[in-house]
Each structure stands twice: as C-alpha cells, then as structure tokens.
Design a protein that fits this description.
single chain; alpha+beta; six-stranded antiparallel beta sheet; 2 helices; 6 strands
C-alpha cells in the first residue's frame, strides 16, 4: 500500500482490513487497525503489529505501532511515518484511551 492508500484505509470508518506497509529496506509489515485519534493538528493511527515479511511476530517484536498521517493541503501529497518519540507516543496512547468510542 502506498501512503495515500494507507491513510484512506485508516480514515474509512467502514474499513477494518489490515494495513500493509513496506519500509525502505523492502520489509513488509502487516498491522491490524485499532483506531485513530486527532492530536496537535495531526491524525495518529494506532495499529497492532501482526506480521513482518509474512511471518507472525514473536513476543519481542509484537506491540503497538503509531503512525502519523499527514496530508499536505497545498500539494495533496500523503505522508505516513511512525512515531518514534516516546513522549508523543505516550501522549497519543493517552488521547486514544480517553477518546469517545467512535474511532
């Protein structure tokens, strides 16, 4: 999936399909959608990592993944990046846990 497809899939409240991402090393990650939350003018998606390169993840790799979803208003370009900052990660989790049940 490209960035635009990922963002459209996550923001479609009727779509519960797993998200497939490929990184710069051509590794493929399959993740289950948990939901998303707006915060600081951005949208953050929370996902559960299921598989890496088609193989189910072990306990050491399993866990929560947070993606920052960005759409450039001027160009219409879509950008998806993982949240690496621990403080922001915790803030997004807190916002999601305290959000209404609609996402």
């Amino acid at each position: 999936m490209n960035d635009k497809e990922i963002i459209e899939a996550i923001l479609d409240d009727e779509n519960f399909e797993n998200i497939l991402m490929t990184d710069d090393n051509q590794d493929t990650f399959e993740m289950a959608q948990l939901g998303y939350v707006p915060l600081h003018g951005m949208i953050y998606a929370l996902l559960d990592l299921l598989k890496i390169n088609g193989e189910e993840v072990g306990d050491e790799d399993a866990g929560l993944v947070i993606l920052e979803l960005d759409i450039d208003e001027q160009t219409g370009e879509h950008f998806v990046s993982t949240v690496e900052d621990d403080e922001l990660f915790d803030e997004v989790v807190h916002a999601y846990e305290n959000a209404p049940e609609d996402h």
